[in-house]
Amino acid sequence: MGGMLRTVNRVLLALTGVMLLVLGLAVLAGGFDLLRRSRVELPSGWPWPGPEAVLLSDADRTRWRSEGWWWPVVFVVLGVLVMLLLWWLIAQLRRRRLGEVLVESGDGEGALLRGRALENALEAEAESLSGVDKASVRLTGRRTAPRARVGLLLAAHAEPGPVLARLSDEALEHARASAALEQLPADVRLRSAKHRAERVQ
């Protein structure tokens, strides 16, 4: 879900940026009459040929209103856009940092553990692992089903495989057990610390 959401965000940002850039350049070119001054031949359907042109004429705004299919299509398109925006908004909110984690206390009520406290404990244990220079942890999801997003800065000569195994078997397992969770899924990102080239004699 997280990877797909990141891809959707990047695609939406890229498309929005390109559309706004093209639209802005077209309006500026028409407003300053740059195309005519540079003697560029405009296509017959070019919407903004010069400073006197408007973005939307009365004819453009009312062209399809008399057609029977116009309003149903408008409502369907708007409904789909609203649903997509709601899905995107809910997905963004679910990715926010988790404030509390519900810990099963055995009495049927449970106890609340501060999400930041669990993050700090997991960070400290991850940083104590051999081969890890720095760790960052963020809890997302629901308080009854949290997820961990872990970023690890590895030492220059650390091997990712053993580090991931120790993170899973030790740090994540201890955090899961301490919060009495059935599972604690994690998304782990690894970065390697830069180091100077060694001289070989």
List keywords for this structure.
201 residues; alpha+beta; Alpha-Beta Plaits; 3 domains; two-stranded antiparallel sheet; 6 helices; 18% strand; disordered C terminus
Structure description:
The protein has six helices and five strands, in the order H-H-H-H-E-E-H-E-E-H-E. With 201 residues, it is of the alpha+beta class. It has three domains: 55 residues, no CATH class; 34 residues; 83 residues, Cation efflux protein, cytoplasmic domain (Alpha-Beta Plaits), CATH 3.30.70.1350. The strands form two sheets. A three-stranded mixed sheet has the order 3-4-5, covered by helices on one side. The chain has a two-stranded antiparallel ribbon with strand order 1-2. Strand 4, helix 6 and strand 5 form a beta-alpha-beta unit. Helix 5 packs antiparallel against helix 6. The protein is elongated and about 70 Å long.
- The structural domain count equals 3
Tally the beta strands. Answer: 5
Q: What fraction strand?
A: 15-25%
The largest sheet has its strands arranged as: 3-4-5
CATH topology of the largest domain: Alpha-Beta Plaits
Shape: elongated
Specify the biggest β-sheet: 3 strands, mixed
